[in-house]
Specification:
CATH architecture of the largest domain: Alpha-Beta Barrel
Structural class: alpha/beta
Helix content: 25-40%
Oligomer: single chain
Radius of gyration: 21 Å
Largest sheet: 9 strands, parallel
CATH superfamily of the largest domain: Metal-dependent hydrolases
Number of strands: 17
Strand content: 15-25%
Length: about 425
């Protein structure tokens, strides 16, 4: 066991799915929790925290460069506007941003994510090459910019270099405005291995596939074969748009999630990002595989994607996480709130996510689901305030609620007081109120 690096005491803490009072928390020098002990007086040598604490959450889906575009596509100059027209405008940002600019944007973003309750982020990273589409002399230049941003703020980071090789099911090559994204199986694995070899503090790596439309079936199978014996996460955008579902049906005879399941690709390492347009049969197939799903409510709303069948995902027992994707929202509680609110609007009833008899508190079920699913999405073996997990925590500001209702008000009462402090991997992070560079 590592020697103790810090001893903290909190008036309340969310431990194993419920609030406990007077909690002593020991942090090891390695950044993991050594012990969590409720019902303890504050020792004279402990650091007394000024509010109750929650474990930090994983933001399981991020495109950091899109933070520079947030809010800049909120007008319609033609008869029609949807995800695809938004995407064309977003490419304009992707074609211009340099490594130095990415580092600046990501540094500001990651500070905002810490302020929003995230202590780890999974970066679905496809912006690799120079603006002219040629590789940088250092192939890891853009990855390094993100790692430097994480180091500057203290947030944990899982980098997911993306397989991206074609513009659509019937288009064998990329469009010209996608030239910075070009990769193949070999280069994706090389980026993953380079990230791991760099041993940047707080940074790990897996891989991602942009989507079924952006990668040929043979390449997806080749990547899967190369990952035998590797425990890193595998993320993929899937079934975000109905047009994607229709195109996949026309090209393969299967809906996107059904195709992945039919090909035998899915296992517990896989994370299906969005999966908005999934049938009950597809959801049950995902459950049988052990794969998880990553939901991004604020981006899915902003882009007009649709609303997932959350009750079906929950009843099937599929692990699920949240992400902020395009970063129009950067607050974990907002993602959880809108995940529930969208269901209320569609079903015209309240507390849809709650499970009477097992977990009647909606916020608790949302938070616990995102906590466990986020750890799976980042391939973290443990999550929460428990020994062996990373020492991540959020110190809540005072909102006037009693301890049993603090999680409910954190999720469902807005605006709320700012977090008083954030710890990631045993270290207090840079000031929570850090502004964008």
């Amino acid at each position: 066991m590592s020697p103790r690096a810090a001893l903290l005491w909190a008036p309340g803490a969310w431990v194993e799915g419920r609030w406990r009072e007077r909690v002593l928390l020991e942090v090891g020098n390695d950044g993991y929790w050594l012990s969590i002990t409720p019902d303890q007086p504050a020792p004279p040598h402990a650091e007394v925290l000024t509010g109750p604490v929650l474990p930090g959450l994983v933001n399981a889906h991020s495109h950091a460069f899109q933070r520079a575009f947030a809010g800049l596509a909120e007008r319609r100059d033609s008869e029609h506007d949807d995800f695809w027209s938004w995407r064309d405008r977003m490419y304009g940002v992707a074609l211009r941003i340099t490594p130095d600019e990415l580092r600046a944007v990501a540094t500001g973003l990651y500070a905002e994510l810490l302020q929003g309750g995230y202590t780890h982020v999974c970066e679905f990273h496809y912006l690799h090459h120079a603006p002219d589409g040629m590789p940088y002399g250092n192939p890891l230049a853009m990855c390094e910019a993100l790692a430097q941003a994480a180091a500057a703020t203290g947030i944990g980071l899982t980098l997911l270099p993306v397989l991206y090789e074609r513009a659509g099911f019937s288009q064998p090559a990329l469009r010209e405005d996608q030239r910075r994204f070009r990769t193949d199986v070999r280069s994706v694995l090389g980026l993953r291995d380079g990230i791991r070899a760099a041993r940047w503090a707080g940074v790990d790596a897996g891989v991602a596939i942009h989507s079924l439309r952006a990668a040929a079936p043979a390449s997806i199978h080749a990547l899967r074969a190369a990952l035998v014996g590797d425990d890193g996460p595998v993320h993929i955008h899937v079934a975000e748009q109905t047009a994607e579902v229709d195109d996949c049906l026309a090209a393969t005879g299967h809906r996107p999630i059904a195709w992945l399941a039919h090909q035998g690709l899915l296992d517990a390492r896989w994370q299906l990002v969005h999966a908005t347009h999934a049938t009950p049969e597809e959801i049950n197939a995902v459950a049988r595989s052990g794969a998880g799903v990553v939901l991004c409510p604020t981006t899915e709303a902003n882009l007009g994607d649709g609303i997932p069948d959350l009750p079906c995902w929950l009843s099937a027992g599929v692990p699920w996480a949240i992400g902020s994707d395009s970063h129009v929202g950067r607050d974990a509680a907002e993602e959880l709130r809108w995940l529930e609110y969208a269901q209320r609007l569609v079903q015209r009833r309240r507390n849809v996510t709650a499970a009477p008899g097992t977990q009647p508190a909606t916020a608790a079920r949302l938070f616990e689901g995102a906590l466990a699913g986020g750890a799976a999405a980042a391939s973290l073996p443990l999550a929460g305030l428990l020994p062996g997990a990373w020492a991540d925590l959020l110190v809540l500001g005072d909102d006037g609620a009693d301890l049993p209702h603090r999680l409910d008000t954190w999720v469902f009462s807005s605006p709320r007081p700012a977090l008083r402090a954030v710890m990631a991997r045993g270290r207090w992070c840079r000031p929570v109120g850090l502004q964008n560079p």
